[in-house]
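Letters spell out the chain; the tokens describe the backbone. To illustrate:

===
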Amino acid sequence: MAVKNKNTQKRATRAERRAAEAAAMKARAEQMEKERKQQTIIGGIVVAVLVILVAIGAFAIYHNMHKSSASQSSDETVQQSYAKLQKVKNTPKYVDKKGGLLISKNGYGKSVENAPTVSIYMDFLCPGCANLHRQLDEDLRKMIDAGQVNLDLHFMSFMDRWSTDEYSSRVANAALYLADHDSDTDHMISFLEKVYAEDFQP
């Protein structure tokens, strides 16, 4: 009888230990999920704030250069520009109707559900855009790999008028060619890092 009770106690002890381990694992998993959600929210806010600041800086640069330029001004509205965009027949494979290129952990044109989408408008000659990417690309890469953010890229060419070879348009076309022919979105982030590098950007 004593042996039987001893075996019963051992089984009970093992069961309690397994239950405690399972509870601890569940608690850790819940904590990790909570931290992941917090990081996603914080990361989204940080990225959004940085994008806004850079957009303001880029607009200020553009506005000042535009005022001092003898180039013709345009009265075309956003709606008119958008209407023209819809008439373009031959478009890059993954570009949406608003001219954006979405990248995420799931690839091009496939968003991660419940993850925030951050839109970045960039010109490859823009110094403010370059500063943003130099500071942010590595963090964006990690967040994309973790499925914490969707990135909506918009390549612009408003600084072509200050280039002798339409540099902004040519680099934008190179980026779109890369997206069409290379399914690895990590290569797009690497491309942006390289063209915005201090020792490369004109």
Remarks:
- DSSP finds five helices and four strands in the chain.
- The helical segments are 2-68, 78-86, 127-145, 167-181, 185-195.
- Strands lie at 101-104, 107-108, 117-123, 150-156.
